Every structure is written in structure tokens, then in C-alpha cells.
């Protein structure tokens, strides 16, 4: 009997081990199922950043941006372009100084990415629906040869000189010599702004005897080479080769133009089709408004934004 009892005890022990082993396998299976379930939220969470990538970042900008328009902003834009493309090496920006009117018409026609203007848009240009962004202000300096003894001139006399009503320097306090009027080409924003500010049309328009020069640099060079010449240029083109007259007794400085005491001032604008502009074009416009961009405005005699 004792032997039978021992055999029975062994058999019961084996059976119990088998049952416990089966229970262990069931628990492992449940554990694996639980692990698979908890990994699903983790996979969903990793997809969220990809869906919210910041497309305004300049890290991946690329492409070519074409800018045409005002020559008054040439020095400012060249520095802005160099700085921007240094930080965005996959972006190429081509700027051509064609005059404000040409830059605006190019934007309307879709022939550029950004138009640069050194005057406000006219009513018919505004109707095209372009986005306008003012990135600086500028004053228009009245330039004469350093040998000219005149130091100040009134807006009224400027209108008379450029319309041909006054033709001798002695009539405005200078020496007895024929005045050589130097103006800009028809598409020039500087010319449009100057003529509007001095009300030249009311005085009869630009004299037929005027020498027309292409670009601020050409006006500067022409005036520097003729002691009887007078012209108008952006502040940034006044240097030792020409002399700036005060206008109505006020010096042409950025501070005076910004305050409004100097009457010959105007805005610098970017215009573009917002719906069609590339990310690179929009990023460049934004850069022009940044502290770095505004530093170049100030560097070249422009008036930076408040």
C-alpha cells in the first residue's frame, strides 16, 4: 500500500506541474498582447511633427528670385541680397535696376518676382492688386557742383529751374552763369517723386533743354563734371564729388526727412503678387524688415523703419 501511495503522489505532482506550466504560457501570451496594444499610441505620436513642419523656415529655401525696378535702392538691395543668399545658399537673387515704373509694370505682368519702387503706387497701379511693403524711406537731395556758391534753394525756385522759367544762377542768388538742368529718365521713380513734390507739372513740366541721365549714378557724375549743373539724387549718392543744397532752409538728412521737415522725401517699396510669390521671395521681403535688413538701409543713407 505504501508503494501504491508513493506512485500516486508522483503522478499527482507531475499533473500539477503540467497545469502550472499551462498557466504560465497563458500569462505570457496575455503579456505579449498587452505590449502590442501599448505601442500603437507611440507610433501615432511620432507622426505629429511631420504633419506640422514649419514651411516658413528659411532652412530649406531654394530657387531663383528676380527683382527689377528702382535704381535708388541699388546699394541697399545689393547688401541685403548678399546677406540673405549667404544664409540661404540654394537661393539665387537677380536684381536689375530698370526704374520704379518698369519694376511695378513687371510685377503686374508677372515678369518678375518682386518689383522695387522708390515712389508710391499710382491709382491705376494699385488697382492691379499687388501687395505693397514699405521697407525704408528716402530723401531726394538737390545736387550741385562743389564750385557752386549757392547753399539753399526753395521748392518754388526748383520748379522754375526744372521747368525752364529760371535759366541763370544769378536769379536765385548764384553767379552769372547758365543753369544746366540734369534730370532722370521717364521711368525713374526718383523723377516721379521729385516732380510730384515740387509740383513741376503745375509749372509747365520738365524743360526740353534738360539733360536726361539714366540712373542716380549718372546724374551724380554729370553734376560733378559741370560746375553749372543741378540735379536730384537719393541721399546715398551725395559724396565729396557733389554738394547738396538745403531746401527751404532745411538740410537734407535722414532725420529731417523722417520727421517731415525736409519736404523732398519718399518711400521705398517692394511690390509683388502675393498669391504667386515663392517662399524664397516672401522670405527675402521679410528679411528686409528685420534688424539685419534695416541695418543696410541705414548704412546707405536711407531711413529705416520705426
TrEMBL record:
Keyword terms of this UniProt record: Cell membrane, Lipoprotein, Membrane, Palmitate, Phosphate transport, Signal, Transport
NCBIfam families: ptsS_2
Cell compartment(s), UniProt: Cell membrane
Gene Ontology CC, one term: plasma membrane
Protein name stated in the entry: Phosphate-binding protein
Superkingdom, natural source: Bacteria
GO BP annotations listed: phosphate ion transport
Function: Involved in the system for phosphate transport across the cytoplasmic membrane.
Major site of localization recorded for this protein: membrane
GO terms assigned for molecular function: phosphate ion binding
Region of interest (Disordered), residue spans: 25-63
Family: Belongs to the PstS family.
Signal peptide bounds: 1-22
Amino acid at each position: 500500500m505504501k508503494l501504491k501511495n508513493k506512485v500516486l503522489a508522483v503522478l499527482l505532482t507531475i499533473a500539477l506541474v503540467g497545469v502550472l506550466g499551462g498557466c504560465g504560457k497563458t500569462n505570457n501570451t496575455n503579456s505579449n498582447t498587452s505590449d502590442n496594444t501599448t505601442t500603437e499610441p507611440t507610433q501615432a505620436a511620432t507622426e505629429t511633427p511631420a504633419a506640422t513642419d514649419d514651411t516658413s523656415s528659411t532652412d530649406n529655401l531654394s530657387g531663383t528670385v528676380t527683382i527689377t525696378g528702382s535704381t535708388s535702392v541699388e546699394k541697399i538691395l545689393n547688401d541685403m541680397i548678399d546677406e540673405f543668399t549667404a544664409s540661404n545658399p540654394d537661393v539665387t537673387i537677380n536684381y536689375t535696376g530698370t526704374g520704379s515704373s518698369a519694376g511695378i509694370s513687371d510685377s503686374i505682368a508677372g515678369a518678375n518676382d518682386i518689383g522695387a519702387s522708390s515712389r508710391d503706387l499710382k491709382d491705376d497701379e494699385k488697382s492691379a492688386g499687388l501687395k505693397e511693403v514699405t521697407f525704408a524711406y528716402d530723401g531726394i537731395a538737390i545736387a550741385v557742383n562743389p564750385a557752386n556758391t549757392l547753399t539753399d534753394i526753395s521748392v518754388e525756385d526748383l520748379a522754375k529751374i526744372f521747368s525752364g522759367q529760371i535759366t541763370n544762377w544769378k536769379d536765385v542768388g548764384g553767379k552769372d552763369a547758365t543753369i544746366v538742368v540734369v534730370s532722370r529718365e521717364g521711368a525713374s521713380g526718383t523723377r516721379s517723386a521729385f516732380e510730384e513734390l515740387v509740383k513741376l507739372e503745375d509749372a509747365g513740366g520738365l524743360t526740353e533743354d534738360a539733360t536726361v541721365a539714366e540712373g542716380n549714378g549718372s546724374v551724380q557724375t554729370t553734376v560733378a563734371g559741370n560746375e553749372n549743373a543741378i540735379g536730384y539724387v537719393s541721399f546715398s549718392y551725395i559724396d565729396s564729388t557733389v554738394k547738396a543744397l538745403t531746401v527751404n532752409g532745411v538740410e537734407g538728412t535722414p532725420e529731417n526727412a523722417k520727421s517731415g521737415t525736409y519736404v523732398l522725401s519718399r518711400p521705398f517699396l517692394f511690390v509683388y503678387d502675393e498669391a504667386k510669390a515663392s517662399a524664397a521671395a516672401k522670405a527675402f521681403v521679410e528679411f528686409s524688415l528685420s534688424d539685419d535688413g534695416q541695418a543696410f538701409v541705414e548704412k546707405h543713407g536711407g531711413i529705416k523703419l520705426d
